Amino acid sequence: MNLLVLVVDDEPDVELLFRQQFRHDLRAGRFTMEFAQSGPAALQRIADAAGVSIILILSDINMPGMSGLELLPKAKAARPDVPIIMITAYGDAETKRKALENGAEAPFHQAHRLRRASQRDRYARRAGRITYRTNSATTSLTAGAQSAKL
């Protein structure tokens, strides 16, 4: 079975960061990663995912056009079985509340948008340690470990 992690972010360098962080898992074929640079592109990829098991969606909240918060209920309606983690540089309580109310498994606070190379490395390491809870079971997506226990 082909396992897919979908990453939604309008910044193109995010793809490089995630591919670098999960390079061992990707090479080993534990799962594949696809990237959408907008909410509409993500919804199209979700709709086209016949025969592919999407195991996780990671989405930025602040994007031009359709925000991650607007994408969230549409993605959950299309694939209610897939956990969605929202990534944000703005970790205010209201944003967190909206994300959780609309079905996000967990918001992941990114302290700030990372621009320099050293900051990019920290971002990739944080992304590799995303942990969320579902139905009292902890599911982890970690680089170098098994892909996801769902």
Verbal overview:
There is one protein chain. Helix 3 (39-47) runs parallel beside helix 4. Strands 2-1-3-4-5 form a five-stranded parallel β-sheet, sandwiched between helices. A two-stranded antiparallel sheet has the order 6-7. The protein has six helices and seven strands. It is α/β, with parallel strands linked by helices. It starts with a strand and ends in a 10-residue tail after the last strand. Strand 4, helix 5 and strand 5 form a beta-alpha-beta unit. It has one domain: 3-Layer(aba) Sandwich (Rossmann fold). Residues 111-124 and 129-150 have low confidence and may be disordered. It is globular.
Structural class: alpha/beta
C-alpha end-to-end distance: 14 Å
CATH class: Alpha Beta
Number of helices in the DSSP assignment:
6
**Beta-strand residue percentage:** 15-25%
List the topology elements.
Layout: E1 3-8, H1 13-21, H2 23-28, E2 32-36, H3 39-47, E3 53-60, H4 68-78, E4 84-88, H5 93-101, E5 106-109, H6 117-127, E6 131-134, E7 137-140
Parallel strand pairs: 1-2, 1-3, 3-4, 4-5
Antiparallel strand pairs: 6-7
